[in-house]
Description:
With 510 residues, the protein is mainly alpha-helical. It has 24 helices and five strands. The strands form two sheets. The chain has a three-stranded antiparallel β-sheet, with no helix packed on it. Strands 3-4 form a two-stranded antiparallel ribbon. Helix 13 runs antiparallel to helix 14 (260-278).
Amino acid sequence: MIRLAYFYLGLPYLIFLIGWLHWYISIPISIFFVYALYCSIGSYVIDNKIIDEIRKQSKLLYLILFLLIVYLFFSGIGGYSFQNEDHHYRSAVFQDLINNQWPVVYQIKGFASENPLEGKQTFLVYYLGYWLPAAVAGKILGIKVGSFILYLWTVIGISLVLYFLCKYFNRFSIKIFWLFIAWGTLYFIGTFYTFPIKEILKGNAYLWAGNLLFADGNTGLIYWTFNQTIVPWLIILLIINQMNPKNILFLSSILFFYGPFAFIGFLSFIAYFVYKNDFSKAKLNNIDFKKFGKYLSFENVGGSFSVMAICYFYFASNSSGNVFNIVLPEIKTYLIFIFLSIGIISILLFDRYKTDLLFYLILFVLLILPFFQLGFGLDLTARASIPAMFILMLLAGEYLLKAKNGIRKNLVILYLIVAGLGHNMQFIRSVYFTSLEAASQTNLGETLSTNGNPIIKNIGDRLLVAKDKNLTIQNNLGTLKNPNNVLVRNFMGLTDQSIFYKYLAKSDGK
């Protein structure tokens, strides 16, 4: 499982190096990276306790795998079910990776004249690592095969996350699966203040607190931003399961490739883990700096360099990445947002973790993030919070496993039930629209619409209205250079202003 996890982390980056960089740069960097992966795998202490426990509960394993496959089927990944509006952009990225030569270059035409990219040559600058194995399959065997590989890649990724969650909690249980899919905030309750039920069911009310205050659950992150979420979860679990000074920095650097915002949100936790492992008991004037030596392994130095240097120049090319602002959210909205997103669960967990520095670090990160904006939207707040929210989930899980039965424990369970039901309305919404789409392609609408029962007739009328409207697949853009892409700057950089494109990237595919 360790080898599979590192293969899962490493393959997309190797594809990126080979597919996007000059060969004389990609070959030595790839050698550095692969050797760092090899050293990291070799440094793990193998513990088969969880594997043995899983083998003893094979029926439960098959049940969880079945539930996971269904749960991810309705995520929209792969195009087999209803997709939310973000898939307009994600499908465009995926199709451009399949249909275009790497690195993907665009001539921007047809946008509004005030768009700074209009008339310019740009190239794709985005967190594209997650798509790359599927994109290679799509280039060779067609987009349908590529879409299936993308779905399969997601099933494997979440399976690895669940395995290492079980390893972290030292048990294999359906409760851990429920904790994972139920985890989230009560942020969605805020939608009821300003939006009617119909808009909430349509998914049009998720930004009730404005464009900079947003908190999501695990289901929402998978269904909306899987490319920036799944691998960061896996990396966090690999680090926390075995705090290894030799590869903690290397693993963290890989996180930068998959999600720069998540990497930013994880930086303070890296410092905390280093402090706790080696310096928490030392006095300020008596720190043994020799302990830093074990962090100077090849993995941490050579491996991290092979990722951070390349990715820095790549992401620095993004046209929106240099837009940074300090913002002051409206105080009432901010307080309601904080109370619903982290306040309630923090109060419930406070008694157990009131002396735990990690608990306060989580709160500090989540409290200050809404005051910073990088780019033009909510990406920094919503994505940099991923590590803190995930580690808070681990604390909540530990609490439920270790706390004695009582009112507080029951309230935490109730919190998870409410959060799980709220966030998994996205699953229910996907099932509804996917079923409606499938039924509308039959003659069932014509049959039911003539029925004398008004309820049945209404169902038939709905099917007729939905017919041939393709309610499920969100692919109106087709390509990121479509003039209807209002977020074009989020995905591109100017070729004539990019160090990466000028000196590192392939030219004309060579």
